[in-house]
Amino acid sequence: MNPIVLTVLYFLMLVYMFMGIAIVSDIFMEAIEMITAQTQIKQIKDEDGNIEIKEETVWNATVANLTLMALGSSAPEILLSVIETLQTLEETPGELGPSTIVGSAAFNLLVISAVSIVSVGETPKKINDMGVFAITSIMSILAYVWLYVVLKAWTPEEVTIIEAVLTLIYFVLLVTLSYAADRYNASLEDSNKTAEEIEETDRKTEIQQWRT
User: Fold this and answer.
1) Which residues are paired to 56 by β-bridges?
2) From CA 174, how far away is CA 92, in angstroms rounded?
3) What is the C-alpha separation between 149 and 163, in angstroms, rounded?
4) Could you state, in order of their start, the residue ranges of all structural domains in the chain?
5) Which helix (H) or strand (E) holds 203?
6) Residue range 55-81, pLDDT digits in tens
7) What 3-state class would DSSP assign to 60?
């Protein structure tokens, strides 16, 4: 077949497959958003013994972002790497799967962060939780350092079972530390809110006494 015709056919097939991946990814992300948006009703007693009904999300936002949302956004690369690994068992694995995962992570860390900052422009923005931001930022850098240690320093050109287990443990540690930082920030916000409410109550009491 004519090379030009083959080029056109390959290009059309690539576009068709990319559209399929986009559609599946959108459905997958919508499903994850529905899961993370689920809420539950809780009855909370205040200091006076009064019961207050409060609606809370089942999933913690920080944990959902680091697990479900990350899985959804990186599902194509992960599946590609798994398929390639299964196809090359007992052989030297290819470079396509790991390259897509590392490249996607680097793109998210560098390009998306840069575009987001440029898009904001001169409008001041505040980071809601510096603790979670600091932990995820530091761990993102350490992930690349760990990758270099595994593939170049510790066991060059090879990933052992111990290294794989340690990598999984580091991820669990990341989620745990981020969740702890999120809960600590939430407790500080509740304390500040309670202090403001007490101050507002005292102020109203003083005004009422002055009027009396």
Assistant:
1) 40
2) 30
3) 10
4) 59-211
5) helix 161-211
6) 777 888 888 888 888 877 777 788 888
7) coil
The pLDDT value given to residue 205: 61
Of 140, 67, 64, 73, the C-alpha closest to 100 is: 73
Residues comprising the chain, all counted = 212
pLDDT in tens, 132-155: 888 988 988 898 899 889 888 888
Answer yes or no: are the C-beta atoms of 58 and 41 closer than 8 Å. Answer: no
Pairing of strands 51-57, 39-45: antiparallel
Indicate the burial class of 78 (C-beta count within 10 angstroms; 0-12, 13-18, 19 or more). Answer: middle
**Torsions phi, psi of 50, nearest 5?**
-75, 140
Query: 134: closest CA among 96, 72, 185, 88?
Result: 185
CA distance 196 to 115: 37
Residue 155 identity (one-letter amino acid): T
- 10 Å CB burial of residue 178 (0-12, 13-18, 19+) is buried
Asked if residue 14 has pLDDT above 60, the reply is yes
> Helix (H, G, I), strand (E, B), or coil: what is residue 106?
helix
CA–CA separation, 113 vs 89, rounded Å? 36
For residue 204, the model assigns a pLDDT of 59
